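USER: Fancy drafting a protein?

ASSISTANT:
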Amino acid sequence: MHKLDLSYQCHITCTSLRQLEDVDEAQRTSAQIMRLTLFFILPMVFASYVMGSIAEYEQNIYLYSSYTLVNGILGGLVFICHCFANARVRRIICPIDLTYTYV
């Protein structure tokens, strides 16, 4: 049986990654913002799922209320994060250019 050397394969894959030259900078910034917002959204989704499961199991009206509140906050957070990922919306809301220039 042939043994695959994963360290060599990972080295080739990791060193061959490079930035794409033909990508629009606004698209790159939008992708970075969406990636960062996942750190806020995913824990909220997990908390909502756990809270909904517990509320259904316990049949507790207070847990259902908390579950509804968390889902409302999660929906607003997803909406705001999605809007701020759009370059045109960022220009309207925050007209200051916050891009970094490297010397």
Q: What stands out?
A: The helical segments are 6-15, 25-58, 61-84, 87-93. DSSP finds four helices and no strands in the chain. The CA atoms of residues 40 and 77 lie 8 Å apart.
